[in-house]
Write a structure and sequence with these properties.
Distance between the termini of chain A: 12 Å
Number of domains of chain A: 1
Order of helices and strands of chain A: EHEHEH
Shape of chain A: elongated
Strand order of the largest sheet of chain A: 2-1-3
Oligomer: homodimer
Number of strands of chain A: 3
Chain lengths: ~80, ~80
């Protein structure tokens, strides 16, 4: 089973990496960029029987820093996972 | 307009970060994890008229390293972007 975890900074948390990317895009002449936030994507290939609780647990204990980050779990169909 | 860029390593490219996460998950007792790949998610808030070509250009020139990475552009509806 393919699972995608998206980890992003909570709203209001300063994102220096996003700001750097924003600044770089403007410097390269791309107009109209209003905001940039950078996060992580973690693609897991797990056994089919893996429970939602186990996935939640992985996120809370290792993949996301719950103090400053949120996570979102997406189960991918076979076509999306390609 | 909210746009999400997903940047991932091309298949076959060694992913030490993914391997470290995989190893850590196993060490924490999570069974059934077969593979882990770590990538980046970049959420852009761009002007509504921004063309697909401009977005492609941003990815190729700055956001992804085309030698070892692929990117995927997703346009988010307002609900998804929340």
């Amino acid at each position: 089973m393919k699972v995608r975890i998206l980890v992003r900074l909570k709203p209001g948390v300063l994102d220096p990496q996003g700001r750097a990317v924003h600044h770089a895009l403007e410097g390269m002449g791309f107009a109209g960029v209003e905001d940039v936030r950078v996060g992580r994507m973690i693609d897991l290939d797990v056994a089919d029987g893996t429970s939602d609780e186990a996935l939640d647990d992985m996120c809370r204990k290792l993949l996301a820093n719950m103090v400053i980050e949120n996570y979102e779990i997406q189960k991918l169909s076979e076509t999306e996972a390609a």
